[in-house]
Structure formats: structure tokens, C-alpha cells
Amino acid sequence: MAVGSIKIEEGNAFPAKMTVQVALCSLIAAVGGLMFGYDIGISGGVTSMDTFLLDFFPHVYAKKHRVHENNYCKFDDQILQLFTSSLYLAGIFASFVASYFSRAYGRKPTIIFASVFFLLGAILNLSAQDLGMLIGGRIFLGCGIGFGNQTIPLFISEIAPAKYRGGLSLLFQFLITIGILAASFVNYLTSTMKNGWRYSLGGAAVPALILLIGSFFIHETPASLIERGKDEKGKQVLRKIRGVEDIELEFSEIKHITEISTKVKSPFKELFTKRENRPPLICGTLLQFFQQFTGINVVMFYAPVLFQTMGSGNNASLISTVVTNGVNAAATVFAILAVDMFGRKSFLMEGALQMTVTQMTIGGLLLAHLKLVGPISGHAVPLIVLILICVYVSGFAWSWGPLGWLVPSEIYPLEVRNAGYFCAVAMNMICTFVIGQFFLSALCRFRSGLFFFFGTMNIIMGLFVLVFLPETRGIPIDEMAERRWKTHPRWKKYFKD
């Protein structure tokens, strides 16, 4: 591919070392994943706490403790589910604003705003006196997640050398799993305290403060600096984060792409009307859709509720959640180490198969052993289900969890990168809202059949990856169109010669 008078040899990446600056910037930015994960993990445990239900949802508390209440319907309440899902409605709006803000002012200020919103939300939840304050805090948290999820994966992808981009980008997902694990520990410790739910929700301030302080020490990305006309500063940062003097080739490539980018006055119009942008738009958006319909947030949001539905006591259900989330974090470490060796597609297809088998098996066990009323039959069944959920979670954690964020951050051209990634994040938020808002109601009505539904979705998404997704491992993100989309048998017709 020619860039001015410079020729980039096919198959070669730009000169770069793995520098301390890149590692530290990636780690600090990825703390946004810690914020996101903590909030995912904390809500399910809090909604299962009797003290929380007595303060805000006394009718759900009464229903939970009725002896003859339908096992599948103990927590079926739209307002209770709104506590979990309201965050994602706010996240959709916030990620849209962040897509413009990030392009106009840079990735770094957007990350700072994310931490401030999240900190305000944690303070509101900690001090909540009524349902309005509680939901208001969730909306601020949603704004923080919208700004963070829109910007942080792009930030890491833009500063990382192509050779190490996969592993560094997965730090975001790894810290999501650490946040979920930390939340399950906190819920276990606070579940027996008076007003323990306040400490659980207020704990979200810790990762927010870490990100707020750390974000003042990260570098702005060279692509963002050059896009905003700060060429010399962009060169300076590029030289520092690459650890080599020979950065002219990469600088020229970024400069060439940004000259095209700055001519695009309406990136969303460009994204939706230009044929060449349809392949990454379809793949990036559908990956996020499928990621949520793996059924993972059923486990992440409602694991304590799910284990209580199967007859476990409150403490036993929280311990089971800690075990599950520990597996989640460990499997993500494996993904970080291996994704740049084996590629994206193989992990995605294997994960889809693993999740299909486990969810179908869980559905069969619940169908056979969990009746509408009374405890689950068979003392070993809850343990078997816990093991199956751990196997399921590991399959998600080394495939669709991290790669659902990584691949969309790699595939868009710079001129529509913020707009395209917004579509991916918005799809994530919409699907997360739908599942968060309606899962407990769907569990009440469809019972074990819900697991067969998610198992079927995993089959569909595995086939989608096999047929439509190009392999992105090791390709500089600004060359993805030349070296992947234009040569893909399903997508090359969208590009002119």
C-alpha cells in the first residue's frame, strides 16, 4: 500500500518496541474496565440482599420468602430490574455524546469525564434515601460507562503496536472480570451487615478514583493528536510510545489517514452511506449483539438470584458467585496470553461451541429437576450446575467477552472510527438493557427454556464468525481495509478496484 512516496510492505508492521509507556497507559486506561465490571457484578448481589429489598422493594422481599412461591418468579419485578438496567439506557446516550467529544477534544479528556461521572454515581448510590436517588446514581454510573466503553478500547488500540494489540486490548476485559470478582467478594462480606448494600454500591468510588488520578498521567494517542492538527506533539508521543527513532513510516500513514478523516464532516452519514463502511459496521455491531445474547449477563447480573432460585441459601449463592467470577478472571488471563498467537476467529468459534453445550445441559438439568414449587430434586444438581456455569463462563471469558470489545476497536477506518465504535457500544448497551430489564420476567415465563434459547443463539453466532468475520490478528488498524476487507470473499464486492 502506498502512503505518499512510502511503500508499506505487505505483511510487515511498523517498527515498534513494547515500551513501559504503552504498558502503563494501557493499564491505567483499562481501569475503566474495572469500573464497568464492578458495577456488573455488584448489582446482582445487592438485589438478592434482604436489607436492600426491605429498604426499596419490600413487596419483592415478601414474595421471595413465601414458601409456595413459584421458584422461577421470586424476583420478577420491573422496577427491581430497572435498578440493574437503567444504567445502560444512560450509557447509550453517553456513548453517543462521547463519540463526538472524543473526536473533538481527544481520548484522554473523555476518559477523565468517564471517571468523574462514575464517581458521582457511586456517591449518590452510597447516600441514597429513596428510589429516585438510587436510580439517579445509576444514571450517572451509566454516563461514566458510556464515556469509558466508547473511548478506552479505541485508546488502547491506537497506542498499541500491532504485534501486541490483542493482548494489551484485552487488559480492558481482564479488568472487567477483576471488577466482577471484586464485587462478588464485597457482596459476600457486606451481605450480613446492616445497610451492607450501601458499602457495596459505594465501593464503585474506588476504581473511579484510581482512573481519575491515573488518567492525568496517560499520553494522548498520536492518531487523536494528528487528527486535531497537533502533528509535532503527535510525532513526539509516537516516538516515545514506540521506543524507536524511525517512526516516519507510521506517522506518514496516520497523517495520510487523518487527512481523509478531517474531510469527513459528518462521520455518521459517512458510516451509513459509504459502501466500503458496511462490512465493518455490520461485523462490529453484530459482534456486540451476539456477545450479549450469549447469555453471559444472565450469569453476571443475576448469579446470586439464579443460585437462590435453585434452592441455595443466600451465603451459598454468594460463594458460588465468587467461584464463578474467579474462573472468569483466570480464563481471561489465558486469552490475553494466547490471542495474539492463535488469532480471533478460532477463539470465537470454540467459545461459541463451549457455551452452546453447557447452556443446553443446564437447561436440561433445570427442566428435569427444578419444579415450579419446592427445592430442587437431587442434592448434587446445584453443584453440577455450578460446575457447568464455570465451564460456560470460561468459554465466554477467553472468546466473546474480550474479543467482542477487541475486534470492533480494530476494524473501522479512522474517519468513521468513533461513529462506528459508537454503533458497537450502543448495540451492547441496548442488548444489555433488554436482558437486564426482562430476564427475570422471562425466567418466570419461559423457565428452563431460556437456556435453550441462549444455546441456540451461540450456534448462530459461531456460524456468523466462520462465514463473515475476517481474521484481524497482527494487522495495523489503518491497513485493515487493504489487507482484510478487500480480500474477503463475502465483503470484497463492497470495495472498488
TrEMBL record:
The chain crosses the membrane at residues 20-38, 79-98, 110-128, 134-156, 168-190, 196-218, 281-305, 317-339, 351-370, 382-407, 419-443, 449-469. Its main location: membrane. Gene3D superfamilies: MFS general substrate transporter like domains. Keywords: Membrane, Sugar transport, Symport, Transmembrane, Transmembrane helix, Transport. Belongs to the major facilitator superfamily. Sugar transporter (TC 2.A.1.1) family. PANTHER family: SOLUTE CARRIER FAMILY 2, FACILITATED GLUCOSE TRANSPORTER, SUGAR TRANSPORT PROTEIN 2. This is Major facilitator superfamily (MFS) profile domain-containing protein.
